[in-house]
Amino acid sequence: MQDDKKTLxxxxxxxxxxxxxxxxxxxxxxxxxxxxxxxxxxxxNPTASFLSTLATFAAGFVVRPFGALFFGRLGDLxxxxxxxxxxxMLMGGATFLIGCTPGxxxxxxxxxxxxxxxxxxxxxxxxxxxxxxxxxxxxxxPVGQRGYWTxxxxxxxxxxxxxxxxxxxxxxxxxxxxQFDSWGWRVPFILSILMVYVSYLIRKNMDESPEFKxxxxxxxxxxxxxxxxxxxxxxxxxxxxxxFGAAMGQGVIWYTGQFYxxxxxxxxxxLDTDQADLILGIALLLGTPFFVVCGRLSDKLGxxxxxxxxxxxxxxxxxxxxxxxxxxxxxPAKTEVAGKGTSSVSVVDRESGKVEIxxxxxxxxxxxxxxxxxxxxxxxxxxDPLKDDQLQTTAKTTVHxxxxxxxxxxxxxxxxxxxxxxxxxxxAAFLVEMFPVKIRYTSMSLPYHVGNGIFxxxxxxVSTYLATNAKINGASDFYLAGLWYPIIISAVCFIIGAVYIxxxxxxx
Length: 508
Known about the structure:
Layout: H1 2-31, H2 33-39, H3 46-62, H4 64-78, H5 80-100, H6 104-107, H7 110-138, H8 146-174, H9 177-182, H10 187-203, H11 210-217, H12 225-230, H13 233-268, H14 273-287, H15 289-301, H16 303-328, E1 342-350, E2 353-363, E3 369-377, E4 394-400, H17 403-424, H18 427-432, H19 440-456, H20 459-472, H21 484-500
Antiparallel strand pairs: 1-2, 2-3, 3-4
Helix pairs in contact: 1-5, 1-7, 1-8, 1-10, 2-3, 3-7, 3-19, 3-20, 4-5, 4-7, 4-19, 5-7, 5-10, 7-8, 7-19, 8-14, 8-15, 13-14, 13-16, 13-17, 13-19, 13-21, 14-17, 15-16, 15-17, 16-17, 16-21
Protein name: Sugar transport protein
Domain Major facilitator superfamily (MFS) profile: 11-508
Keywords: Cell membrane, Membrane, Sugar transport, Transmembrane, Transmembrane helix, Transport
């Protein structure tokens, strides 16, 4: 028994490390989306560039179901281990090459095109990785404990995002702002190749899962996994139920609590980038152990109501949570500290010429500090500001919070992470138990990656569009408009899951 548990921990460790690195690779792009929008897209329209970056980010999610089909088929034909070894190398190579791709100013249109292709390769790789890792761990797990053991795999997605934020923060701390903006943003992408190599060395010594080996020795593996998974009406019914009754809602909650929250802090609350990353990182670190708690809870109570509870809580509380977040940096509602503001003007050399930087700082009674910075190009000869038709002045506002506001924002993000753990902790065991061994990799991968890749992956772009459109139309609560997408999707999923899911259906 002790040897079995030791073997199981080795399986968990090897599978989790590789999956964590793949999520790290996948999420660096999202974590650096604001910076990447200035590197790979035209700089003359920042809003359009940012939306284009989000669309490229979403493209990686859209192709994940195709990766699920392609690699899921391979996994059911040749085995779990070898398939997710291939996905690991594909992901690592694509991520490394994004870090090496020249910017828009160097190669023009080819820059976003190359990045889009590499992003699509990332999506295909992740589409094959997760299903393989979750199936592999589940098929090593004792019956009745799959929720607990597979929940360790569930921590890797959130922890991968956490690691990406840590690497980015450390890179920013080590380098100057100008160095990071010039070339330092490439470092997190390039570093991934080293982590992939270490994971490869660990994974290559793993054995195939016992359930798949048994099915293969008995001649019970599928000859055509795609046809048996989706051409069989009985099995297709469970594929659709897994998607619309669980994975769809889980996907939008996952991305709302992490990526939408991060984007909201930076682009709506105007929070300092490093501070926003740190706050999200703290909340992720505090919340990650609850994946295992919720996985264990699903072993005791069943997968259905643990997941649906997370969806219901999100539906009811998302708008109040984001209203509270917005008010933490709502400057018009705050009282300024008289006489504590400062201002400064300096001229620095940029690649395009000299730039005058005027910085005005205001302090507020609750500890909030607001820095308004304007960047004005100046003549190399006279030092006078250039006219608008030559080079345009740009400005940005950065908010820094402290004290109870800081704690409150961590708490509000943490609550959203708890919702994620409720829906995401049990999902791997739920999906694995719905399908028989011979078509499990294929059957479980598709609904998971459609739910997360399509419904979840489109969330940043769709929600940003809804909020932008509401702002253009003059809505006073425009900053909450983007939440309608996850709320509606979660509500539909909750109703379908509550009515049609009876229990986890084990087909061992």
